Amino acid sequence: MSSSGTRSTVSGLLPLDTTEDVRERGAGVARQVAVLPVGSFEQHGPFLPLATDTLVACAIAREVAAAYPVHLLPPVTISCSHEHAAWPGTVSISSVTLHAVVRDIADSLRGSGVDTLVLVNGHGGNYVLGNVVQESTGSGTRMALFPAMEDWEAARERAGVQTSLLSDMHAGEIETSILLHAHPEFVKAGYETSDFLADDRRHLLTLGMSGYTESGVIGRPSMASAEKGKELLAALTDSFGAYFSLVTSKTLPSDASETGTSAVVDRRH
After folding, report:
1. Between 10 and 237, where is the model more confident?
2. Cβ partners under 8 Å of residue 108, min gap 6
């Protein structure tokens, strides 16, 4: 953080803190918190980039870091996108690998005095992140997963997003709105005419996305707007306040003592 109190980034993705910035910020808080954006590299229809989930996670994390005294980390850009394998360009790693990467990052942070890690997840298929947070109890690292379904629902209502969370599954109104606000240069023409719904997706894990959509889109991107994207990010930033208070509290309900504790935040998909 510079002397003016602002944070510099490259394309909204990479934090440019120096080690002195990190030391200065850590000296002013009782508990140091790091924020790790976790995205993916997967198809998002013909009009959004493969890096959409990473861009969304970074946009959320960037707003959070501007509002709260947290250490912003660079994103994890490839994750568990196996359900999108039918489309060219999609790249995945195993859930075991993602689990190990996040745990290694948490261990490294703890070694430098940062004992709290919040995962900002931009991809709903990263189910393993919930397990990482759940298993962190007693590990010496407090962890939380953000945003939860309830945070997205509150943000959707505040921003005036008309599509339900069930219908707005992929490359729909929410994701397109956030990119129209944060990175409009990355949104190609065609989202205005790409609406497609498939609310009954009970066999998604077996069939993959290709069992439900030819275009890769499930949602109503035609209803997206930059204004909605801005309000979505503002609402999520406000919601993060409860997480920050929780993970920086002296003790948690699950704590056995004041040290070596962790937080589990409920998440649903």
Report:
1. 237
2. none
